[in-house]
Give the backbone structure.
Amino acid sequence: MSPSPAPSANSAATADRAARAWAVLESVPDPEIPVVSIRDLGILRDIAVADDAALEVVITPTYSGCPAMSQIAEDIGLALDAAGLGPWRIRTTLSPAWTTDWISEAGRERLRAYGIAPPGQCSQAPAAARPMRFVPRAARAGAPDLVPCPRCGSHHTQEISRFASTACKALYRCLDCREPFDYFKPY
C-alpha cells in the first residue's frame, strides 16, 4: 500500500479560502433581527470552492416567501467582496426546508437577550427525515407550549397575536412583568 499523497498547496489554499469565507459571513447580520447572524439562524448552509474557483455560498430561507432573502444575498456579496474573496455565487436551496432547530445555541441566547423568546427544539429527527406539515401541530400532552418571557423568565405568558413584527414570530405578553415580546415560532 503506497502512502497517500500530501495535500497540495492549491487544496490548502482552497480550504483556507472557504474557512475565511465562513469567518467573514459569521458577521453578516439577519436584516430583520440584526443581533443574530445568518449563520446563527442556520440560513447559511454551506460554503465550497467550485471547480471554476468561485466560492459557492448555499443559503436556505426561513420560509419560501421570505422577503429578506434578496437583502441577505446582497449582504453576503458585499462582505465577500470587502474581504477580497471573489469570485463568488449564491445558490438558494429549499430542500431540506429550514427549521428553527438550525438556530445555534449562541443565536438562541442572542435572541433572548434582544427580547425575543427563542423557539424550543422541534424534532429529534434530522430535517431531511421530517415530513413537512401544513397544519398546526397539536399541543404537547394536551397543554399549550409554555413560552418563557425573555425579560423575567416567567412561564406565565399569553399569546396576543399569532403574527408579530414578522411572519415567523408571534406576539406574546408576560402576565408577571407585563411586558410584550416576540416569540420566534418553532417550525
